[in-house]
Amino acid sequence: MVYKHEHTHLKNHDNLVKLLCLFVLCLHWMNPVAYLLLFLYIDTAEIVSDSVAVDGCTKEKRQDYAKLLVLEASTSDIRPAVWKNNLSGHKNNKEGKDFKTLKRRINYMMKEKRKGMLQRGIMVAVSALTVVASAGTVMAYQPVASSDESFEEVIFDDSIEDFGLNDIDENLDDDLIRSLDFSQSDCVYIDSDGNQIACQESEDTYALCTHSMAPSSFYTHGRNSSGGCTVKIYSCQRCEKCGYRANAVLQSTHTYVTCPH
């Protein structure tokens, strides 16, 4: 009967499937359904193997097999690897999960009707639920719109002076541009409340941030070889939590013969 039990594990490739379940658990360790999937498969694999082992046996033979499982469970002190097949599990206290699992296995094998197909159906349903829940975890994060220009790759060149005053928007407040503080960084934000925020190049975007985007203006400052400077003004969206920038649109370019900053 023990050989039939282990042969069923090999026939059903239970070791491989357990490794796959463990891999899913490593990928989705924050998803409680992934833990449920691994637990149910381990439980189901043992119940199915027990059902094959006692198939066609008398009640007395089933009782002998159940006693063997209890004896093995009471003498084993080594915690088995999760991907291995274990006849009775490892030793635990009487209120532990392993003895409850063993009790459930014995109840199944003592019944004439086999419950293996029902257990496998439950396992398939949980597998499908795991896939759906994993997709829901991804969709829980709001997609962030891509920017049409990378701020990390803004290049300032002396040839930009060729644009002269033609690129200056007369409606912009020149006093505001002159009052910008570029002492800490050549990149400055101005939020909807008019607050200036220096942008540090080492500022990292949090990968798991759900992004609370707010309208903002972005100013870049570059010194020219002639002693002047060039200020580019962008409209963009900025995350109030992590500082992520998106949807940058160049509004105007201002070139000063003498840098006022």
UniProtKB/TrEMBL annotation:
The chain crosses the membrane at residues 16-42, 121-141. Keywords: Membrane, Transmembrane, Transmembrane helix. The keyword Transferase does not apply. Coiled coil: none annotated. It comes from the Bacteria. Residues 1-93 form the Peptidase M56 domain. The keyword Zinc does not apply. It holds the Pfam family Peptidase_M56. PANTHER family: POSSIBLE SENSOR-TRANSDUCER PROTEIN BLAR, SLR0241 PROTEIN. This is Antirepressor regulating drug resistance, predicted signal transduction N-terminal membrane component. It comes from Blautia wexlerae. The lineage of its organism: Bacteria, Bacillati, Bacillota, Clostridia, Lachnospirales.
